């Protein structure tokens, strides 16, 4: 009798890296398309440069590592990194911001650590943070929405001058809601007065305000996040704990001193809170594996985001908060890892009682 044997594991799943990445990209499509409409051709050009640069740099890194360059397109991770990086940049930034951000995101944050699945920090946020620290003026010049094909929106020739020539008209620049309030507070103007001059909460939720593509169209970003939850790509632990902690601490300090601190609702719908909660902080590689750790991680991101927004030099603190918590992920995993049966939390076998 012939007996055939096979080695484990025997459990297989239909999911894969490619399918996961494609699902996340699909979740980003509605918000991205709406932002293309809001900010026009310059945003489309910058997005193309950023994503294309990430893919090209990843192909070059793989070629240097002796791997087929075409594999850079197989898992779509470089596309997702470039996509998220583009969503975090000023939509009318010059092309070289997208290129340099891609270099730091892929070559430094990803392949310097060994490639996909081995990076410690979120690559897109590394790219954005390096650009913000290195070029603070360019990275904080925002523009109010100029819907595609509407009166006053830049045509193709003007968009080419903006993205590839770096000639954005001064009359089109505007401050983000977080940036405006922070500037007014630094001048001694109470938050209650400065809040009266920012877009109302509904316009901010719908996206009709200055900011990056990741700061606008909050409802579409929320829809994308819920879509990923429905597909079980992400769980609720990080988004809910992150936004909950941000809302609670902002509401607490606003109740104590409304003249110095803005409300919890304002912090939720301003900046890149929704994008960070659903698409950035939930990155598999750089966030904790276990559910208790994810709650700790999300809470830390929320508290740090609020602290940086209020007490640091930058209006938006999402990228810094995520990177700081990325560095704590191994420690969080170590202390929140569930105990295996018959072993302690360190993985050591439990002592066996010897009975006569």
Q: What report would you give on this structure?
A:
It is a single chain. The chain has 356 residues and is an all-alpha fold. The protein folds into 2 domains: 159 residues, no CATH class; 119 residues, no CATH class. It has 14 helices and 2 strands, in the order ααααβαβααααααααα. It has a two-stranded antiparallel sheet with strand order 1-2. The mean pLDDT is 86.
Features:
single chain; 56% helix; mainly alpha; 2 domains; two-stranded antiparallel ribbon; 356 residues
Helix content: 55-70%
* SSE topology string: HHHHEHEHHHHHHHHH
Q: In terms of structural class, how would the helical and strand content be classed?
A: mainly alpha
**% residues in beta strands:** under 5%
**Averaged pLDDT:** 86
Count every beta strand, where a strand is a DSSP E run of 2 or more residues: 2
How is the main sheet built? 2 strands, antiparallel
Strand order across the largest sheet: 1-2
Structurally, the number of domains stands at 2
Give a summary of the structure in a few sentences.
56% of the residues lie in helices and 1% in strands. It has 356 residues and is an all-alpha fold.
Itemize the secondary structure elements and their pairings:
Elements: H1 17-64, H2 77-87, H3 95-108, H4 123-134, E1 142-143, H5 156-163, E2 173-174, H6 177-186, H7 191-194, H8 201-206, H9 218-230, H10 237-256, H11 264-269, H12 273-280, H13 291-311, H14 318-336
Antiparallel strand pairs: 1-2
Helix pairs in contact: 1-2, 1-3, 1-5, 1-9, 2-3, 2-4, 3-4, 4-14, 9-12, 10-12, 10-13, 13-14
